[in-house]
Amino acid sequence: MTYVAKGDEYKNIDSRQLKRFMKIPDFTRSLTPSQAEGVSRRILTASWALETRIVYDAILDGYTSMDSLPVATGLTEAQVRDALADLTKRGRIKEVGVAPVEEEPISL
Amino acid sequence: MKKSQFLSKLLLLLLVLPLALLPITPVYAIDDPDSISVESARAFEGLWETGDMLFIVEYKIMDDPEPTEDPRDTYLVGIWDGVVKGPDRPLDYYQHNFTSIYMTEVQVTAFGYLYDDELIVRVAGNPTFFPTLTEGVNMKSYPLTAHWVNEGSLSATRLALADWCILLAETLEASWPGEVVLLTSGGKLNAVGRDKFLEAIPGLDSICTDIFQVSTSYPEYEEPTYDPAYEETLLGRTGVKLTGVLEGLGKWVTGKAGMGSLVGGIGLAVLFFVLAGRIFIATGSVPIAIVVSIPFLFAGNIIGILPLTITFIAAFLVVVMFSVTFILGRL
Question: How many CB atoms lie within 10 A of CB B97?
Protein backbone atom coordinates (compact mmCIF):
# COMPACT_ATOMS: atom_id res chain seq x y z
CA MET A 1 0.00 0.00 0.00
CA THR A 2 1.47 3.29 -0.97
CA TYR A 3 0.38 6.31 0.96
CA VAL A 4 0.21 9.61 -0.87
CA ALA A 5 0.77 12.63 1.33
CA LYS A 6 -2.22 14.92 1.32
CA GLY A 7 -1.66 18.47 0.16
CA ASP A 8 0.90 17.52 -2.46
CA GLU A 9 -1.45 18.75 -5.16
CA TYR A 10 -0.42 22.20 -3.94
CA LYS A 11 3.25 21.68 -4.69
CA ASN A 12 3.25 24.15 -7.62
CA ILE A 13 2.27 27.05 -5.39
CA ASP A 14 4.33 28.39 -2.51
CA SER A 15 2.63 27.97 0.86
CA ARG A 16 3.40 31.64 1.55
CA GLN A 17 1.32 32.55 -1.51
CA LEU A 18 -1.50 30.34 -0.22
CA LYS A 19 -1.23 31.96 3.19
CA ARG A 20 -1.61 35.37 1.57
CA PHE A 21 -4.64 34.24 -0.42
CA MET A 22 -6.22 32.86 2.77
CA LYS A 23 -6.48 36.46 3.98
CA ILE A 24 -8.77 37.34 1.06
CA PRO A 25 -12.41 36.83 2.13
CA ASP A 26 -13.53 35.98 -1.41
CA PHE A 27 -10.99 33.15 -1.55
CA THR A 28 -11.77 31.57 1.81
CA ARG A 29 -15.52 31.81 1.12
CA SER A 30 -15.05 29.97 -2.17
CA LEU A 31 -13.42 26.92 -0.52
CA THR A 32 -15.34 23.84 0.49
CA PRO A 33 -14.49 22.44 3.93
CA SER A 34 -12.25 19.75 2.46
CA GLN A 35 -10.50 22.29 0.21
CA ALA A 36 -9.98 24.59 3.17
CA GLU A 37 -8.54 21.69 5.12
CA GLY A 38 -6.25 20.83 2.23
CA VAL A 39 -4.99 24.40 1.94
CA SER A 40 -4.41 24.63 5.69
CA ARG A 41 -2.63 21.28 5.64
CA ARG A 42 -0.35 22.47 2.86
CA ILE A 43 0.47 25.72 4.65
CA LEU A 44 1.35 23.72 7.75
CA THR A 45 3.36 20.95 6.15
CA ALA A 46 5.03 22.54 3.11
CA SER A 47 8.46 22.64 4.70
CA TRP A 48 8.26 19.12 6.11
CA ALA A 49 10.09 16.20 4.55
CA LEU A 50 7.92 13.97 2.38
CA GLU A 51 8.18 10.99 4.77
CA THR A 52 7.12 13.17 7.69
CA ARG A 53 4.07 14.37 5.78
CA ILE A 54 3.13 10.81 4.82
CA VAL A 55 3.42 9.53 8.39
CA TYR A 56 1.48 12.54 9.71
CA ASP A 57 -1.36 11.87 7.31
CA ALA A 58 -1.41 8.21 8.28
CA ILE A 59 -1.53 9.06 11.99
CA LEU A 60 -4.44 11.44 11.38
CA ASP A 61 -6.18 8.62 9.55
CA GLY A 62 -5.88 6.41 12.61
CA TYR A 63 -2.70 4.43 12.07
CA THR A 64 -0.98 5.07 15.38
CA SER A 65 1.21 2.06 16.12
CA MET A 66 4.61 0.94 14.88
CA ASP A 67 2.96 -2.22 13.63
CA SER A 68 0.54 -0.44 11.33
CA LEU A 69 2.42 2.64 10.21
CA PRO A 70 5.08 0.98 8.00
CA VAL A 71 2.39 -1.10 6.37
CA ALA A 72 0.05 1.82 5.83
CA THR A 73 2.68 4.23 4.55
CA GLY A 74 4.90 1.89 2.59
CA LEU A 75 7.95 3.28 4.37
CA THR A 76 10.61 1.35 6.21
CA GLU A 77 10.59 1.19 9.98
CA ALA A 78 13.64 3.43 10.13
CA GLN A 79 11.94 6.06 7.96
CA VAL A 80 8.83 5.86 10.11
CA ARG A 81 10.85 6.28 13.30
CA ASP A 82 12.67 9.28 11.87
CA ALA A 83 9.39 10.83 10.79
CA LEU A 84 7.88 10.20 14.22
CA ALA A 85 10.87 11.84 15.87
CA ASP A 86 10.46 14.84 13.55
CA LEU A 87 6.77 15.10 14.34
CA THR A 88 7.44 14.81 18.06
CA LYS A 89 10.02 17.56 17.81
CA ARG A 90 7.49 19.73 16.04
CA GLY A 91 4.99 19.08 18.76
CA ARG A 92 2.51 17.48 16.38
CA ILE A 93 2.38 14.10 18.15
CA LYS A 94 3.17 12.70 21.54
CA GLU A 95 4.13 9.19 22.45
CA VAL A 96 1.53 7.86 24.86
CA GLY A 97 3.45 4.72 25.93
CA VAL A 98 2.51 1.04 25.81
CA ALA A 99 0.01 -0.99 27.77
CA PRO A 100 1.49 -2.97 30.76
CA VAL A 101 2.03 -6.67 30.12
CA GLU A 102 0.27 -8.85 32.60
CA GLU A 103 1.89 -12.16 33.47
CA GLU A 104 -0.36 -15.09 33.66
CA PRO A 105 0.23 -17.28 36.70
CA ILE A 106 1.71 -20.62 35.91
CA SER A 107 -0.60 -23.38 36.83
CA LEU A 108 0.47 -26.94 36.94
CA MET B 1 58.30 29.84 38.85
CA LYS B 2 56.06 32.82 39.16
CA LYS B 3 57.73 34.45 36.21
CA SER B 4 57.26 31.40 34.02
CA GLN B 5 53.61 31.14 35.01
CA PHE B 6 53.13 34.77 34.13
CA LEU B 7 54.84 34.31 30.79
CA SER B 8 52.72 31.28 29.89
CA LYS B 9 49.53 33.14 30.78
CA LEU B 10 50.66 36.10 28.72
CA LEU B 11 51.42 33.83 25.78
CA LEU B 12 47.97 32.24 26.05
CA LEU B 13 46.37 35.67 26.12
CA LEU B 14 48.33 36.78 23.09
CA LEU B 15 47.16 33.69 21.22
CA VAL B 16 43.49 33.96 22.20
CA LEU B 17 43.04 37.74 21.88
CA PRO B 18 43.45 37.97 18.06
CA LEU B 19 40.86 35.22 17.64
CA ALA B 20 38.38 37.12 19.77
CA LEU B 21 38.95 40.26 17.73
CA LEU B 22 38.34 38.53 14.39
CA PRO B 23 34.97 39.60 12.86
CA ILE B 24 32.35 36.91 13.16
CA THR B 25 30.75 36.34 9.78
CA PRO B 26 27.60 34.20 9.78
CA VAL B 27 27.59 31.53 7.12
CA TYR B 28 24.35 30.90 5.26
CA ALA B 29 23.75 27.94 3.03
CA ILE B 30 20.75 26.43 1.30
CA ASP B 31 20.41 23.42 -0.95
CA ASP B 32 20.03 23.92 -4.66
CA PRO B 33 16.43 23.75 -5.85
CA ASP B 34 15.00 20.62 -7.45
CA SER B 35 14.71 22.62 -10.67
CA ILE B 36 14.85 26.23 -11.82
CA SER B 37 13.49 27.77 -15.01
CA VAL B 38 12.20 30.98 -16.56
CA GLU B 39 8.92 30.07 -18.24
CA SER B 40 8.42 33.41 -19.98
CA ALA B 41 9.54 37.04 -19.97
CA ARG B 42 8.27 40.17 -21.64
CA ALA B 43 9.66 43.70 -21.80
CA PHE B 44 7.11 46.48 -22.29
CA GLU B 45 8.22 49.98 -23.26
CA GLY B 46 5.95 52.98 -22.73
CA LEU B 47 3.30 52.26 -20.13
CA TRP B 48 3.06 54.90 -17.39
CA GLU B 49 5.24 57.32 -19.34
CA THR B 50 6.98 57.35 -22.68
CA GLY B 51 10.33 55.60 -22.40
CA ASP B 52 9.71 53.63 -19.23
CA MET B 53 10.15 49.86 -19.15
CA LEU B 54 8.38 47.02 -17.38
CA PHE B 55 9.90 43.52 -17.35
CA ILE B 56 7.50 40.70 -16.41
CA VAL B 57 9.14 37.38 -15.53
CA GLU B 58 7.33 34.06 -15.02
CA TYR B 59 9.55 31.53 -13.27
CA LYS B 60 9.62 28.13 -11.58
CA ILE B 61 11.88 27.46 -8.60
CA MET B 62 10.63 24.02 -7.62
CA ASP B 63 11.72 22.75 -4.23
CA ASP B 64 10.24 19.98 -2.11
CA PRO B 65 10.16 20.27 0.81
CA GLU B 66 9.76 24.01 0.63
CA PRO B 67 12.74 25.85 2.10
CA THR B 68 12.10 27.57 5.38
CA GLU B 69 14.35 30.45 4.31
CA ASP B 70 12.49 33.52 3.10
CA PRO B 71 12.64 33.56 -0.73
CA ARG B 72 13.29 37.28 -0.59
CA ASP B 73 16.62 36.43 1.02
CA THR B 74 17.54 33.52 -1.21
CA TYR B 75 16.57 34.38 -4.79
CA LEU B 76 16.32 37.43 -6.98
CA VAL B 77 15.55 38.35 -10.57
CA GLY B 78 17.73 40.79 -12.44
CA ILE B 79 18.23 42.42 -15.82
CA TRP B 80 21.63 41.89 -17.39
CA ASP B 81 23.24 43.67 -20.30
CA GLY B 82 25.96 41.22 -21.18
CA VAL B 83 28.01 40.95 -17.99
CA VAL B 84 26.74 44.22 -16.56
CA LYS B 85 23.99 43.76 -14.00
CA GLY B 86 21.09 46.16 -14.08
CA PRO B 87 18.23 46.54 -11.63
CA ASP B 88 17.06 43.52 -9.64
CA ARG B 89 14.29 42.53 -7.30
CA PRO B 90 14.06 39.79 -4.65
CA LEU B 91 11.58 37.03 -5.38
CA ASP B 92 8.56 36.77 -3.11
CA TYR B 93 7.82 33.09 -3.62
CA TYR B 94 9.27 29.72 -4.50
CA GLN B 95 7.58 27.26 -6.89
CA HIS B 96 5.65 28.60 -9.91
CA ASN B 97 5.03 32.34 -9.83
CA PHE B 98 5.83 35.63 -11.51
CA THR B 99 7.19 39.07 -10.70
CA SER B 100 8.17 42.29 -12.43
CA ILE B 101 10.82 45.00 -12.53
CA TYR B 102 9.85 48.54 -13.42
CA MET B 103 12.17 51.31 -14.58
CA THR B 104 11.18 54.93 -15.08
CA GLU B 105 12.33 56.76 -18.19
CA VAL B 106 15.08 58.42 -16.19
CA GLN B 107 16.33 55.07 -14.91
CA VAL B 108 16.21 53.55 -18.39
CA THR B 109 18.32 56.42 -19.70
CA ALA B 110 20.75 56.06 -16.80
CA PHE B 111 21.27 52.37 -17.59
CA GLY B 112 21.42 53.08 -21.31
CA TYR B 113 18.75 50.56 -22.27
CA LEU B 114 17.05 50.83 -25.63
CA TYR B 115 14.03 49.13 -27.09
CA ASP B 116 14.87 45.69 -28.51
CA ASP B 117 18.24 45.58 -26.74
CA GLU B 118 19.68 42.10 -26.25
CA LEU B 119 19.12 42.12 -22.54
CA ILE B 120 18.93 39.01 -20.39
CA VAL B 121 16.53 38.27 -17.57
CA ARG B 122 18.17 36.12 -14.94
CA VAL B 123 16.61 34.34 -11.96
CA ALA B 124 19.41 33.41 -9.61
CA GLY B 125 20.19 32.42 -6.06
CA ASN B 126 21.54 35.06 -3.72
CA PRO B 127 25.35 34.64 -3.59
CA THR B 128 25.12 34.97 0.20
CA PHE B 129 23.29 31.64 0.26
CA PHE B 130 24.77 30.02 -2.82
CA PRO B 131 28.58 30.15 -2.89
CA THR B 132 28.57 29.01 -6.49
CA LEU B 133 25.97 29.98 -9.05
CA THR B 134 25.57 27.49 -11.88
CA GLU B 135 23.35 27.94 -14.91
CA GLY B 136 20.50 25.47 -14.80
CA VAL B 137 21.20 24.47 -11.19
CA ASN B 138 20.54 27.58 -9.09
CA MET B 139 20.45 30.19 -11.83
CA LYS B 140 18.55 30.53 -15.09
CA SER B 141 18.98 33.08 -17.85
CA TYR B 142 16.42 34.07 -20.46
CA PRO B 143 17.24 36.35 -23.41
CA LEU B 144 14.70 39.06 -24.10
CA THR B 145 15.32 39.03 -27.86
CA ALA B 146 11.98 39.01 -29.70
CA HIS B 147 10.10 39.59 -26.45
CA TRP B 148 9.91 43.38 -26.52
CA VAL B 149 6.53 45.09 -26.77
CA ASN B 150 5.88 48.68 -27.82
CA GLU B 151 2.71 49.23 -29.81
CA GLY B 152 3.50 52.82 -30.69
CA SER B 153 1.42 54.58 -28.06
CA LEU B 154 0.86 54.35 -24.32
CA SER B 155 -2.75 53.21 -24.74
CA ALA B 156 -1.95 50.51 -27.30
CA THR B 157 0.97 49.16 -25.25
CA ARG B 158 -1.26 49.09 -22.18
CA LEU B 159 -3.76 46.99 -24.10
CA ALA B 160 -0.98 44.57 -25.01
CA LEU B 161 0.04 44.42 -21.33
CA ALA B 162 -3.57 43.73 -20.33
CA ASP B 163 -3.75 40.80 -22.76
CA TRP B 164 -0.47 39.42 -21.45
CA CYS B 165 -1.65 39.65 -17.85
CA ILE B 166 -4.80 37.66 -18.64
CA LEU B 167 -2.67 35.03 -20.38
CA LEU B 168 -0.40 34.83 -17.33
CA ALA B 169 -3.39 34.45 -15.04
CA GLU B 170 -4.69 31.56 -17.16
CA THR B 171 -1.27 29.89 -17.06
CA LEU B 172 -1.04 30.13 -13.30
CA GLU B 173 -4.60 28.91 -12.87
CA ALA B 174 -3.75 25.82 -14.89
CA SER B 175 -0.62 25.19 -12.84
CA TRP B 176 -1.98 25.87 -9.38
CA PRO B 177 -4.63 23.76 -7.66
CA GLY B 178 -8.17 24.15 -8.96
CA GLU B 179 -9.47 26.06 -5.97
CA VAL B 180 -7.04 28.93 -6.64
CA VAL B 181 -9.03 30.89 -9.21
CA LEU B 182 -7.69 34.18 -10.50
CA LEU B 183 -10.22 35.02 -13.22
CA THR B 184 -13.95 35.49 -13.30
CA SER B 185 -16.06 33.67 -15.87
CA GLY B 186 -15.91 36.89 -17.88
CA GLY B 187 -12.11 36.76 -18.07
CA LYS B 188 -11.36 39.53 -15.59
CA LEU B 189 -9.13 39.36 -12.52
CA ASN B 190 -11.20 38.58 -9.44
CA ALA B 191 -10.25 39.57 -5.90
CA VAL B 192 -7.57 36.87 -5.71
CA GLY B 193 -6.21 37.73 -9.15
CA ARG B 194 -6.23 41.41 -8.27
CA ASP B 195 -4.22 40.75 -5.12
CA LYS B 196 -1.70 38.61 -7.00
CA PHE B 197 -1.19 40.97 -9.92
CA LEU B 198 -1.01 44.17 -7.89
CA GLU B 199 1.54 42.52 -5.63
CA ALA B 200 3.69 41.56 -8.62
CA ILE B 201 3.05 44.71 -10.69
CA PRO B 202 2.27 47.65 -8.36
CA GLY B 203 0.16 50.30 -10.00
CA LEU B 204 -1.17 47.98 -12.70
CA ASP B 205 -4.73 49.04 -11.89
CA SER B 206 -3.93 52.62 -12.88
CA ILE B 207 -3.11 51.73 -16.48
CA CYS B 208 -5.06 48.52 -17.12
CA THR B 209 -8.32 49.17 -15.30
CA ASP B 210 -10.44 47.01 -17.61
CA ILE B 211 -8.86 43.70 -16.62
CA PHE B 212 -10.02 44.05 -13.03
CA GLN B 213 -13.47 42.93 -12.00
CA VAL B 214 -13.58 45.71 -9.45
CA SER B 215 -11.85 48.94 -10.22
CA THR B 216 -11.88 52.47 -8.90
CA SER B 217 -12.60 55.36 -11.16
CA TYR B 218 -13.63 58.95 -10.64
CA PRO B 219 -17.00 60.13 -11.97
CA GLU B 220 -16.78 62.61 -14.81
CA TYR B 221 -17.74 66.09 -13.74
CA GLU B 222 -18.64 68.86 -16.11
CA GLU B 223 -18.14 72.25 -14.54
CA PRO B 224 -21.35 74.24 -15.01
CA THR B 225 -21.10 77.58 -16.82
CA TYR B 226 -23.07 80.55 -15.71
CA ASP B 227 -24.45 83.09 -18.09
CA PRO B 228 -24.52 86.45 -16.30
CA ALA B 229 -26.16 88.17 -19.24
CA TYR B 230 -29.35 89.12 -17.35
CA GLU B 231 -27.41 90.38 -14.35
CA GLU B 232 -25.32 92.57 -16.64
CA THR B 233 -28.44 93.82 -18.35
CA LEU B 234 -29.90 94.88 -15.02
CA LEU B 235 -26.69 96.58 -13.93
CA GLY B 236 -26.79 98.59 -17.12
CA ARG B 237 -30.13 100.12 -16.16
CA THR B 238 -28.54 102.51 -13.65
CA GLY B 239 -28.70 105.29 -16.15
CA VAL B 240 -26.33 108.14 -16.76
CA LYS B 241 -27.79 110.57 -14.25
CA LEU B 242 -27.93 108.16 -11.33
CA THR B 243 -24.46 106.89 -12.13
CA GLY B 244 -23.14 110.43 -12.19
CA VAL B 245 -24.78 111.25 -8.86
CA LEU B 246 -23.42 108.10 -7.21
CA GLU B 247 -19.94 108.62 -8.64
CA GLY B 248 -19.94 112.19 -7.38
CA LEU B 249 -21.07 111.13 -3.94
CA GLY B 250 -18.46 108.36 -3.92
CA LYS B 251 -15.68 110.77 -4.78
CA TRP B 252 -16.88 113.26 -2.18
CA VAL B 253 -17.01 110.58 0.57
CA THR B 254 -13.93 108.51 -0.24
CA GLY B 255 -11.87 110.87 -2.36
CA LYS B 256 -11.48 108.20 -5.03
CA ALA B 257 -13.15 107.67 -8.39
CA GLY B 258 -15.17 104.57 -9.20
CA MET B 259 -16.84 104.39 -5.77
CA GLY B 260 -20.34 104.95 -7.11
CA SER B 261 -21.52 101.37 -6.86
CA LEU B 262 -20.18 101.14 -3.29
CA VAL B 263 -22.05 104.25 -2.22
CA GLY B 264 -25.17 103.01 -3.96
CA GLY B 265 -24.91 99.65 -2.26
CA ILE B 266 -24.42 101.24 1.19
CA GLY B 267 -27.33 103.54 0.64
CA LEU B 268 -29.51 100.63 -0.38
CA ALA B 269 -28.39 98.64 2.67
CA VAL B 270 -29.31 101.54 4.95
CA LEU B 271 -32.74 101.78 3.39
CA PHE B 272 -33.11 97.98 3.72
CA PHE B 273 -32.34 98.00 7.45
CA VAL B 274 -34.63 101.01 8.04
CA LEU B 275 -37.46 99.13 6.35
CA ALA B 276 -36.66 95.94 8.23
CA GLY B 277 -36.55 97.88 11.50
CA ARG B 278 -39.92 99.48 10.80
CA ILE B 279 -41.47 96.09 10.09
CA PHE B 280 -39.86 94.69 13.24
CA ILE B 281 -41.42 97.46 15.31
CA ALA B 282 -44.76 96.68 13.77
CA THR B 283 -44.58 92.89 14.07
CA GLY B 284 -42.07 92.27 16.86
CA SER B 285 -40.55 89.43 14.83
CA VAL B 286 -37.01 89.53 13.37
CA PRO B 287 -37.50 86.71 10.84
CA ILE B 288 -40.67 88.35 9.48
CA ALA B 289 -38.89 91.69 9.24
CA ILE B 290 -36.04 90.19 7.23
CA VAL B 291 -38.20 88.05 4.98
CA VAL B 292 -40.59 90.92 4.18
CA SER B 293 -37.64 93.25 3.47
CA ILE B 294 -35.87 90.91 1.03
CA PRO B 295 -38.01 91.92 -1.96
CA PHE B 296 -36.74 95.46 -1.44
CA LEU B 297 -33.37 94.24 -2.66
CA PHE B 298 -34.97 93.38 -5.98
CA ALA B 299 -35.72 97.05 -6.35
CA GLY B 300 -32.01 97.69 -6.12
CA ASN B 301 -31.45 95.05 -8.84
CA ILE B 302 -33.99 96.60 -11.13
CA ILE B 303 -32.49 100.09 -10.94
CA GLY B 304 -29.06 98.61 -11.42
CA ILE B 305 -27.41 99.56 -8.13
CA LEU B 306 -27.21 96.05 -6.67
CA PRO B 307 -25.93 92.96 -8.56
CA LEU B 308 -28.52 90.16 -8.77
CA THR B 309 -25.99 87.76 -7.21
CA ILE B 310 -26.01 89.69 -3.92
CA THR B 311 -29.78 89.49 -3.69
CA PHE B 312 -29.87 85.73 -4.22
CA ILE B 313 -27.03 85.15 -1.73
CA ALA B 314 -28.87 87.20 0.86
CA ALA B 315 -32.09 85.30 0.17
CA PHE B 316 -30.26 81.95 0.47
CA LEU B 317 -28.74 82.93 3.82
CA VAL B 318 -32.14 84.01 5.10
CA VAL B 319 -33.64 80.67 4.09
CA VAL B 320 -30.84 78.75 5.82
CA MET B 321 -31.14 80.85 8.99
CA PHE B 322 -34.91 80.52 8.97
CA SER B 323 -34.70 76.72 8.48
CA VAL B 324 -32.18 76.28 11.28
CA THR B 325 -34.23 78.46 13.62
CA PHE B 326 -37.43 76.64 12.71
CA ILE B 327 -35.92 73.17 13.08
CA LEU B 328 -33.99 73.96 16.26
CA GLY B 329 -36.99 75.73 17.65
CA ARG B 330 -39.01 72.56 17.09
CA LEU B 331 -36.40 70.21 18.62
Answer: 25
On whether the pTM is more than 0.90, the answer is no
Q: What is the pLDDT of residue B41?
A: 98
Residues of chain A with confidence (pLDDT) below 50: 1
Report the DSSP beta bridge partners of residue B62: B35
Give chain B's residues under pLDDT 50.
Answer: 331
CB atoms closer than 10 angstroms to residue A91 = 7
Sign of the torsion angle spanned by Cα atoms B85, B86, B91, B95: negative
Q: Assign residue B115 a region: left if phi > 0, alpha if psi is -120 to 50, beta otherwise?
A: beta
* Contact status, residue B45 vs residue B130, Cβ threshold 8 Å: no
Number of other CB atoms surrounding residue B102 within 10 Å: 18
Euclidean distance between CA atoms B217 and B198, whole angstroms: 16
Closest CA to B30 of B124, B154, B109, B113: B124
Residue A103's pLDDT is 54
Positive or negative CA dihedral for B248, B254, B257, B262? negative
Contact list in A for residue B196 (CB cut-off 8 A) is 17, 21
Name every residue in B having a CB less than 8 A away from some CB of A: 62, 64-68, 71, 92-97, 175-177, 179-181, 190-192, 195-196, 199
